[in-house]
Structures are given as structure tokens and as C-alpha cells.
Amino acid sequence: MAGTLGHIKVLDFSRVFAGPWAAQMLADFGAEVIKVEHVKGGDDVRRMGVPHLGADGEPTGETSSFLAMNRGKRSVALDLKHPEGQALAKRLIAEADVLIENFKTGTLARFGLDYAAVAEINPRLIYCSITGFGQTGPMAHLPGYDPIFQAMSGLLSMTGTDDGQPGAGPALVGYSISDITAGQYAVSAILAALNHRDAVSGEGQFIDIALLDTQIHAASHMAMNYLSSGRLPRRNGTASQITCPWQAFDCADRPIMIAIGNDPQFSRFCEYLGLDGVATDPRFATNLARVTHADTLVPMIAAKLSEKQADSCYAELEAIGIPAGPLNSFEDVFALEQVKERELLKALDHPNAGRVRYVGNPVRFSKTTADDGRHPPLHGEHTDEVLRELGLGLDDLAAVRAAGAVK
């Protein structure tokens, strides 16, 4: 059964993470996605991440990051600095519904591929530009990568260990959260713009996505704490700053995560731990009170949990409706029966890497599919195929290749 976006054609001019992630999501939803790469080396992410190992344990020439971001696409290698490359790009754009790019602000204008220029070719085009700082403002010209935006957005003021504690300092979120967040915003914006085009205006539009903007917005519930109270969030380890108890605790053998979401849960939790009278103590009876008096409450809980084994504690808490969970490694994650049942770990065949396991799209539609399992493309793997679809014959292909406009 076809995906929800089987009628949509997407040109992915982006590199590295945010743009390719957005384009892969659209591909998972059924869109035809053509990845336009530079003739020399292609997407930089082909050289990022760890080497993907084959069945024999040897590197296959593919990298983990490229495999994670580019499933479901076809690859065309064009030189956008070459007039013939620009001409071919415009022919692709004329037939597209969506274009995603993350060049530095103003770069594509030098090639005649900015929104103002290509909208004349295809006025129905949704053109999504993803940059570090957006198209306006004094920093619009600057490049940037995920840790820059984790730092500048205020995120690192909330992660890690508070000042005065052992190991004090910020802790970088363990994946490229700013890129993935921006990519998800881009997908939402593209789908909204497509709906407006098809249901309202009949016209495309330009979308301006900035990693700094989206990372700040993604943390807006924590920013709102500051805007409401004037108090800045602090680095708080695994603990929430707005809910208590809501953090990792050490059991006798290993840690467990506890997340108490309401007062009745807290009452059952106290009964389970044998903390008599604590749930009705005015200092702890409500969440706001518990947050205020966390320095007193948390050590009481920690002392009780330190006497228990994590697995049995987890099972006992589950039985009484207390949200808890183990602190898993990825080895643990993929061994979970829940993850197996949801079929999140999938596999596909790749011409270089052999059988490749990957994390499948998590969205479940009732009537359409997500993720057709097409392998991440080799560099320029589909150049001839896609250009033939534009009407180029063998002589035309030979000519543009001889000119250096394509790989």
C-alpha cells in the first residue's frame, strides 16, 4: 500500500543532518525524494559517524550517520557551480513539489537557485531553507553545528550537574538534538505549506527554519518557567525542575528512573517505600510543595530505594501503577520485548554494506505505510536514471558528464 505522500516529489539539496533528516521523514511517508549531491564526494555526512562494519567485521565504506539520515532516496550528483549543473537542477525543480536546502544564507542565489529565481520556474514549489540562524538578523551569515545551538539556546544551562556539586558543569545532549529538532519542525512546516497550497492558495511558498529558533522553541516550557517566575532554570542532573520525584535513583545493583506524575501516584509510592506520613506531610502533599522541599524529600526516597534490586523494584512499581524504567543502553533497548513487538529494529539490503540493521520510522498509519526500506543511496547512484526521466538521451548524458556537470 502506498505511503501518504506518494504523490509528492521532493528535492533534497541539503547536507549533514537537519535537512537530510527532514527529507528522509518525507521519504518514509511515501514521497519520491531525490538527493542532489556535489559531484566531488557528495554529502559531507558520508564521512561522518563511525564506519559501518560488514558481516565479516570489516569497514564497508559506508558510515553510520549517512545510513541513518538518507534512507528511501535516490542520489543525483550535480555540480551546481557549473552552468550545465544549474540548468539540470532547474529542470528537476520545475517538476518538484518541495525543495529542501541548508546552504549558508545567500549561497544558492549565486547559482540562480534561490527561492525568488526558482519560484518563477515553479510557482507551486514549497522551498524550505534550514540554516543555523535563519535568513534575517545579524547572525544570519554564520554557519553552526549542533553543540553551538545547544549552548546558545540555553539548553546547556539545564543539562549536567549544578555548580558546587561533584562533576559540576553542563553536559551535551548525547545526540544532535538541534539538528533533529529543526528537521522535525521542517517536516511539519512543509506539510502545512503543502496543505495550504493544495487546499487554499494553489501557490507554493518559502519556509525559513533556523536551528537556534527551533531549539529555543522546543525548550519553551522551560523558558516559560523563567518568563513566569524570573528564576533561571539550573543544571539538575537527571532530576526535573518542575516535578518531584522525577529522576534517577540508585538501587542496590543499578539505577532506576522514577517519574511521579500526580499526587495519588506519590501516595502509593510512599506506601510502597514504607514512608509513613510523608504523603500527607504539608511539605510533600502537592507537587509544588515537593519541588520546594526536594532537598529533604529526595534523600528519604534514595535511602529506601538503595535497599532494593532494580528489576524487582521496577516490576513492583509497575504493578501499582508507578511510572518507572531502567536506564538502558542501546543493547538493552533492542532486547526489549516492547521494542520487538513495535518492530522498531528493521533491516535492509545495501549494495556495499550488505544487510544493514536500522531504526525504522516510528509512525503507525492505519491505512498507509511508512518506510519502504529503500537503501541509502550510493553517491550518484541514480544520476543517469533520474536524468533520463527528465528526457536526456545517452548522448546528452555523455555530454554533461564530459563537461563535469554530473558524476
CATH-assigned homologous superfamily of the largest domain: Crotonobetainyl-coa:carnitine coa-transferase, domain 1
Overall CATH architecture of the largest domain:
3-Layer(aba) Sandwich
Walk across the major sheet and give the strand order.
5-2-1-6-7-10
Mean pLDDT across every amino acid position: 96
The count of strands amounts to: 15
Helix content: 25-40%
Total helices: the number is: 16
The SS-based structural class is: alpha/beta
**C-alpha end-to-end distance:** 34 Å
Could you say which overall geometry the principal axes of the C-alpha atoms support? Answer: elongated
Strand content: 15-25%
CATH class of the largest domain: Alpha Beta
Overall domain count: 2
Low-pLDDT residue spans: none
Please give the largest β-sheet: 6 strands, parallel
Topology-level CATH name of the largest domain: Rossmann fold
Rg calculated over all Cα atoms? 25 Å
Description:
It is built from 16 helices and 15 strands. It has 407 residues and is α/β, with parallel strands linked by helices. Helix 1 packs across helix 6 (177-201) and helix 6 packs across helix 7 (211-218). The longest helix is centred in the middle third of the chain and has 25 residues, at 177-201. It is elongated and about 85 Å long.
Provide the descriptors you would attach to this structure in a database record.
Rossmann fold, alpha/beta, elongated, single chain, formyl-coa transferase, domain 3, 2 domains, 407 residues, three-stranded antiparallel β-sheet, 15 strands
